[in-house]
């Protein structure tokens, strides 16, 4: 009987822990953002992320609070000798949190670590084809998003992307768009939308533009979007997210329906920021 009572108590404690976990997270976050945004972080933002200066004042304030929470909750790991300091953390966090503005967010709840390499890194993946032959795929990457709670970034490419905020290429935006996509399971180009009825139009518009980009690649026709977006729907979503934030006017003019879908998803309208 005593063991049964003990198990019952432990079960109630576990349930209470799970039920109150979101509330405890919100409490911790409120406590974090109640502290002033450090002056040295403000200097880093202005130096390394000029995009910040083009944003409306209310979104600048919101972004700074998001940066505080992100840095508090995520672990940054330096690889191949790179030292993790405030400049690394703030530069990456600012670009990653750009995707979270105006949205109910768990701050990338599945993400635990950001691994930072000095420059492009090499990955090797073992694959088996239909005939059973095992082969190794060796790639040089500037970023990668994993479903097991990690994002890998090249610090060099992170700096380049941040310093050129209107060229439509940003590795941090790209990889963290994948993180949003992966919140619904495997990345497939369909992140969690506001309501279930939104998926029909999302699928229609993004599928149409994905096929159009594949046609551009096949016919060697220039496009606003990087050819890498034609790889699969997940990469297409990540690529168009880069362009949405960095070349919003061109995107709205050339692809108004696609821009509308992304604007509804991100709950932002950056066309008027620049």
TrEMBL record:
InterPro entries, per this entry? MetalloPept_cat_dom_sf, MtfA_fam, MtfA_N
What Gene Ontology terms describe what this protein does at the molecular function level? Answer: aminopeptidase activity; metallopeptidase activity
Superkingdom is Bacteria
Coiled-coil spans are none
Q: Which residues cross the membrane?
A: none
Q: Which GO terms describe its cellular component?
A: cytosol
UniProt protein name: Zinc-dependent peptidase
User: Lineage of the source organism?
Assistant: Bacteria, Pseudomonadati, Pseudomonadota, Gammaproteobacteria, Alteromonadales
């Amino acid at each position: 009987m005593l063991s049964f009572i003990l198990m019952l108590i432990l079960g109630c404690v576990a349930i209470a822990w799970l039920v109150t976990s979101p509330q405890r997270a919100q409490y911790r976050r409120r406590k974090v953002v109640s502290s002033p945004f450090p002056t040295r972080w403000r200097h880093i933002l202005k130096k390394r992320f000029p995009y910040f200066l083009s944003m409306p004042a209310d979104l600048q304030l919101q972004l700074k609070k998001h940066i505080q929470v992100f840095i508090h909750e995520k672990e940054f790991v330096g690889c191949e000798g790179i030292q993790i300091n405030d400049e690394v953390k703030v530069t990456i966090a600012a670009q990653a949190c750009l995707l979270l503005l105006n949205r109910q967010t768990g701050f990338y709840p599945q993400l635990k670590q950001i691994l930072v390499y000095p420059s492009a890194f090499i990955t090797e993946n073992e694959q088996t084809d239909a005939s059973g032959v095992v082969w190794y795929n060796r790639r040089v990457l500037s970023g990668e998003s994993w479903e097991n709670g990690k994002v890998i970034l090249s610090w060099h490419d992170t700096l380049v992307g941040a310093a050129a905020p209107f060229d439509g290429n940003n590795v941090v935006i790209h990889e963290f768009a994948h993180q949003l996509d992966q919140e619904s399971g495997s990345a497939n180009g369909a992140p969690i939308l506001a309501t279930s009825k939104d998926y029909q139009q999302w699928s229609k518009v993004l599928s149409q533009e994905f096929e159009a980009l594949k046609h551009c690649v096949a016919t060697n026709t220039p496009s606003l979007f990087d050819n890498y977006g034609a790889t699969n729907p997940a990469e297409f979503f990540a690529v168009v997210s880069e362009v949405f934030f960095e070349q919003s006017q061109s995107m709205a003019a050339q692809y108004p329906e696609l821009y509308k879908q992304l604007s509804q998803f991100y709950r932002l309208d950056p066309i008027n920021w620049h």
